[in-house]
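User: Hey, quick favor. My workstation is busy. Could you predict this chain's structure for me?
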Amino acid sequence: MGGTDRSEEREPVGLRERKKAETRCRIAEIAARMFMQRGYENVRMIDIAKAADIAEQTLYNYFPTKEHLIFDRDREFEQFIIAAITQRPPGQTLAESLRANALLFVDQISPAIGKPSWVPASVANGPELRHVWLELNARCANAVTDALIKMEKGRLARPVAKVMARSIVGLFAVIVEGVGEDNLAGRSRRAIIKKMRAAVEAYAKIIGPGFPAT
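Assistant: No problem, here it is.
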């Protein structure tokens, strides 16, 4: 008879979550290969489900749309930015932390240039992907807003925190978009990295005097 798998019910929560994370990662990797081999527009959700040997509904439980498969590490993106704000060494200003972490971010994603990866080079290639990318950035900005307000212990008005949050998320979003666009344009990894690092340095000079030191 159908029903819930009792053995799954007995599994510790941590183990279940780890299995879910592993399944999600496997699906995203399979989808990335298929997008690279066939082209994004030629791959259907049912094709991905069959390749991953899962039910199509299971696939939708992990990724509500095909567009979300392009951005399979959006939560990691969000947590990286929040950590740059909240987990700074003593004495390091917010502006200094953003500069250091943005440069680190450039280095971390640079090995993915030219490979099927989470770097969304495709964001410039269609309105559906662009819509999802903007949606993820907006959600990230909301989380960063809350982190800034908490960090400033209520001294920062929400409208001001929103402006700051969107600027901060925009920095990392521009890195992702810039790497993707330049990759599609055929620029070398070295040239892309140099360009993105220069953009980070320019941003740091602008925000330095204006962001809170705490």
